[in-house]
Amino acid sequence: MAQKYIDLTTLKYLLNNVHGLSQLVQLERYKEHDPESMGMFLDSVKEFADRELFPFFKEMDDSPAAFKNGEVIVHEQVGVIMKKGGEMGLICGPFDYEIGGLQLPFIVHTAATYILDTANNHLPGYLTLTLGAAELITHFGNSALKDAYIPKMLSGEWGGTMCLTEPDAGSSLSDITTKATPTKDGHYHIKGQKIFISGGDYPYVENIVHLVLARIEGAPAGTKGISLFVVPKLRTENGNSIKNDVTTLSDFQKMGQRGFATTHLGFGDQNDCRGWLLGEAHQGLKYMFQMMNDARIGVGRGAAAISMAAYQASLQYAKERTQGRKLRSSGKKDPNESPCPIIEHPDVRRMLFLQKAIAEGSLSLILLAAKYHDLQLAEKDQATKEKYGMLLEIITPIVKTYPAEAGAVAVNNGLQVLGGYGFCTDFILQQYYRDIRIFSIYEGTTGIQSQDLLGRKVLMDNGRALELLLNEILETITEALTMENLKPYATILGDKIKLTQEVTAHLMPIATEGDFERYLSDANLFMEFLSHLVLGWIWLDIAATAEKDILKKDNTYPLDFYQGKIHTMKFYFKYELIKTSGLAKSIMHEDVLTLNSEKDYF
Amino acid sequence: MAQKYIDLTTLKYLLNNVHGLSQLVQLERYKEHDPESMGMFLDSVKEFADRELFPFFKEMDDSPAAFKNGEVIVHEQVGVIMKKGGEMGLICGPFDYEIGGLQLPFIVHTAATYILDTANNHLPGYLTLTLGAAELITHFGNSALKDAYIPKMLSGEWGGTMCLTEPDAGSSLSDITTKATPTKDGHYHIKGQKIFISGGDYPYVENIVHLVLARIEGAPAGTKGISLFVVPKLRTENGNSIKNDVTTLSDFQKMGQRGFATTHLGFGDQNDCRGWLLGEAHQGLKYMFQMMNDARIGVGRGAAAISMAAYQASLQYAKERTQGRKLRSSGKKDPNESPCPIIEHPDVRRMLFLQKAIAEGSLSLILLAAKYHDLQLAEKDQATKEKYGMLLEIITPIVKTYPAEAGAVAVNNGLQVLGGYGFCTDFILQQYYRDIRIFSIYEGTTGIQSQDLLGRKVLMDNGRALELLLNEILETITEALTMENLKPYATILGDKIKLTQEVTAHLMPIATEGDFERYLSDANLFMEFLSHLVLGWIWLDIAATAEKDILKKDNTYPLDFYQGKIHTMKFYFKYELIKTSGLAKSIMHEDVLTLNSEKDYF
């Protein structure tokens, strides 16, 4: 089995040099933290991952979480990660001191969870869902709810889940039918079913706290009639902990991420399920979406991590496996030469650079989003806060989508590096290949994200968020134009900004004329287009940082490390960013082929 | 589970209308056949597939072929397909009458096997490998070998395999070390190991005939010292059938196509394995590659079939599943409306059209290759034979690669249509997703095919094969230019011909200057580029056929059927063919980033 699953050096370089962690911790909120101690924290997380996560990765796939005799069975490491992860601050990290948190920058917490994901993506979800549920209670709960739930959740003694999807309401949350009936005791009776509930039930924690979207009787139809409830597995009555009529009805067996239990939950089958309203009635979806940004960064993080781990595994194989010979100038090979390691073959290098470009680019992208989260939260100036809020809004659908979609392509190339062995269960690549596939579906499919990006975020505040994003990109271009080595690439990216403006100028009139269905019909292509622009920027930023470090003769890292970053930027530009031309043409194409076609064309 | 797994109407339309089966059977070789009886044959194959293949598809994945206690265990349908498939002529079909074949056009045999593949891709390999092995013996064996093996193989009583790969010689066949030592009795002693042997062992047949690449002692190094041997599992001695010291050492458990046993075979562990030389010494690789074209068409056929089956499954789901509502001109939805079938959503239609374009386009491509095979074989005129031989040579790497690579993308979109359910094992899409992944590896990876295309086929006979191919494409363009409806698309494809010439004009000097490694460094991109050109042609050809049928008011099929084909051509041009622009730019890019980079850049 592959030994290395993460490039920790690159993670730290991106955190410190590219994203300027030392500047971030000058903000009042983070002043107790310093880069050095945070680096040590990450090292300890890596050791934890080496010991408690990575060794169990394959066996969690071989023996999936399962629902047997009315019980959900999961690997015992789930207990370890909840307990020790809780102790290490992997749940409470980003929370305020006053509620028991560490007030850790979200970018560092993201890096820490990323390390866990690279080691074994089946486990961290138990922690992160608990964190997400606790965050909702912290933001919108009254002090009674906070006191009752938060300490136990932040310590990992209790788990948490998000219950959105129903059998007839997947991507369409407005069709939620789970019912909440008020009682005179202040709580509600909850009745309904939820599907695809990750970590919906498992032993090894004392309680599980479900955050459930439901409709209060008589609420308006659609998304405006949905409220959010805290529904624990066990409730406290007269000082006793008793069952709250939340039952696992079945589970979902999946192609990948099989160690992460996915359940079908019933609430109130015996009419004895109590829920507590979180915040105000009918505001549930709004609340849910306030923390959805973080959840979506989390999905991007998981996918980015899998592409990193797969890259490391295929890189190791390519260095060790000898096969074939280098071509001579005649185009022939000399059979008497010894075979070379396959990393010498240009096509293998192409597959490795593609993986590196996607894996490291995705990592830098999720760190950027986490930084925006931090800046929005911790900056004092209202205009600055809003600016980073807007940037976070527009970048989030890309952060959710690119690492998943491009990550699947990266892992696919990783598998291919191994040839026939890549397809065999004795090698780990095929597991990464199966695991990463869920990330294009989690927390809003790629289709939903693309509609969010083009239909909501691009139009938001008259296009202000996109304008802010393009300005950020222009700043990097301006800086890179001053470096002789990077000038040609900065110029190319500048042209792509113009192309973006051309594309939006083409699309806007369609939206303003009210032809919304047409406006959004190629939203997926727009997502791909804008993702490439953003990743081109991410890579130019990394290259500019490396170039500066070379110029100032910083020898913290070997020269090859810096040059490898610049080289990968060039690779991204040559092989990936170039696709924006074709995509722009497709988007601006006059044929609209997915609206007017007859059903019987299929 | 999905019920429909093939669009038989489209298969027959492609065979008869697009590829002109009725003209093909005017050739002397096929004169006993007529389109009607061949249509009935295909119907009977479909019934066979309905009954004996499709119902076992999921359970073959759930209970994979396995090596236990020294025995290879496979699903009992393996016995059924060998016996009944043999009886139905699914092995002997394309063979000459005189050797016991049906002299069926290869295009019809390909269509028949394709039907089997769509129903259950884990089973037909047992038949097709037997066919391939029998074909080699037929072509290169002496009459003793033919008499001993062919009748039993064509009837399906005996199975066959191809044994190429060794632990240290995967893509690099020149490193084969299996030894063959001549004896004075005319046969050879064989000693060595072979891995990844599909259908390498199974009960339900009386014998298994291995075609083994090995090196006669003292043979030259490299590919020129490899010979081909017939090595049966059981040999006949003094009228008795005795073991021939071929043993299964282990098997390979895989991510997909799990019902198709993949074995690791040992030859001569007890120094008692006999092999019979096929044809002349040291010609083994040449022989193997003479039938490799058919094997590679077979790989394309399997992948094309899986993309078809996945398309049908996701299409059925999209028609039945209701969720969400159509957008109104305001960009909002009315929650009081009932949800619509998801096929109404433009993005779902996009995913379905993409699948249709790839699945049907791949099918037409493999039928075209099979037709070239037929014409090369059955035409009398030497120049015509050679022409089709050249066309077959240049198109084969694309036929092997496109259905596998694009097919994986198609299936990926099919899975996405189902959202979360697509990832669950209760739905069949995830199985197609896993199964199709092997086709980019089988019979020469995509990397190897790309090197074959650019390094061998494009250069062949001073570029004559490519020229012939472009001429064929130009013929279709010329015809389509006469149809008002298709003119714009014909013009676009004409421009792409020019772009192809530009790309090759850029590449050729690099090869002639002897910088072969650089010439081939982006062979994969060239493969993708030329595949799009060929598929654009395939679709223009289908559209031109449909347009002609509409113009002559042929009402064999409903109007929507014809228009659906033309619409899908437009879809291919808008979303796929357009990618050639970016690919051409990447290929002609001045940065060569996969040759000069340092290993430590990774």
From TrEMBL, chains A, B:
<dbReference type="InterPro" id="IPR036250">
    <property type="entry name" value="AcylCo_DH-like_C"/>
</dbReference>
<dbReference type="InterPro" id="IPR009075">
    <property type="entry name" value="AcylCo_DH/oxidase_C"/>
</dbReference>
<comment type="similarity">
    <text>Belongs to the acyl-CoA dehydrogenase family.</text>
</comment>
<dbReference type="GO" id="GO:0016491">
    <property type="term" value="F:oxidoreductase activity"/>
</dbReference>
<dbReference type="InterPro" id="IPR046373">
    <property type="entry name" value="Acyl-CoA_Oxase/DH_mid-dom_sf"/>
</dbReference>
<dbReference type="Pfam" id="PF02770">
    <property type="entry name" value="Acyl-CoA_dh_M"/>
</dbReference>
<feature type="domain" description="Acyl-CoA oxidase/dehydrogenase middle">
    <location>
        <begin position="162"/>
        <end position="267"/>
    </location>
</feature>
<dbReference type="InterPro" id="IPR037069">
    <property type="entry name" value="AcylCoA_DH/ox_N_sf"/>
</dbReference>
<dbReference type="InterPro" id="IPR006091">
    <property type="entry name" value="Acyl-CoA_Oxase/DH_mid-dom"/>
</dbReference>
<dbReference type="Pfam" id="PF12806">
    <property type="entry name" value="Acyl-CoA_dh_C"/>
</dbReference>
<feature type="region of interest" description="Disordered">
    <location>
        <begin position="322"/>
        <end position="341"/>
    </location>
</feature>
<dbReference type="InterPro" id="IPR025878">
    <property type="entry name" value="Acyl-CoA_dh-like_C_dom"/>
</dbReference>
<keyword id="KW-0274">FAD</keyword>
<dbReference type="InterPro" id="IPR013786">
    <property type="entry name" value="AcylCoA_DH/ox_N"/>
</dbReference>
<dbReference type="InterPro" id="IPR009100">
    <property type="entry name" value="AcylCoA_DH/oxidase_NM_dom_sf"/>
</dbReference>
<feature type="domain" description="Acyl-CoA dehydrogenase/oxidase C-terminal">
    <location>
        <begin position="283"/>
        <end position="452"/>
    </location>
</feature>
<keyword id="KW-0560">Oxidoreductase</keyword>
<feature type="domain" description="Acyl-CoA dehydrogenase/oxidase N-terminal">
    <location>
        <begin position="39"/>
        <end position="157"/>
    </location>
</feature>
<protein>
    <submittedName>
        <fullName>Acyl-CoA dehydrogenase</fullName>
        <ecNumber>1.3.8.-</ecNumber>
    </submittedName>
</protein>
<dbReference type="InterPro" id="IPR052166">
    <property type="entry name" value="Diverse_Acyl-CoA_DH"/>
</dbReference>
<feature type="domain" description="Acetyl-CoA dehydrogenase-like C-terminal">
    <location>
        <begin position="470"/>
        <end position="592"/>
    </location>
</feature>
<keyword id="KW-0285">Flavoprotein</keyword>
<dbReference type="Pfam" id="PF02771">
    <property type="entry name" value="Acyl-CoA_dh_N"/>
</dbReference>
<dbReference type="Pfam" id="PF00441">
    <property type="entry name" value="Acyl-CoA_dh_1"/>
</dbReference>
